[in-house]
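Re: the request from the purification team.
They wanted to know what the chain is likely to look like in 3D before they choose a buffer screen. I agreed to run a prediction and write the result into the notebook, where they can find it.
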Amino acid sequence: FSSDGTKLAVGSFSGEFKIWQIPDLILSCKVKAHKDRLCSISFHPNPTSSSSLNIATCSVDTTIKLWSLD
């Protein structure tokens, strides 16, 4: 969950992640992030701006990626 509790990040075996708006469960973003399955996804605890979501993902493809979803 994002630090304000309004977004949920979900990773998948396909290497993509989705951002859902809470509590309405509206899909706001879908990203093909990695070549292999995600093993972790996390929001930054203090986003750089109120309109920015900073997310880190890592995958079994041995990569770590940082995302800014403006």
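For the purification team: The mean pLDDT is 89.
Please add any questions underneath this entry.
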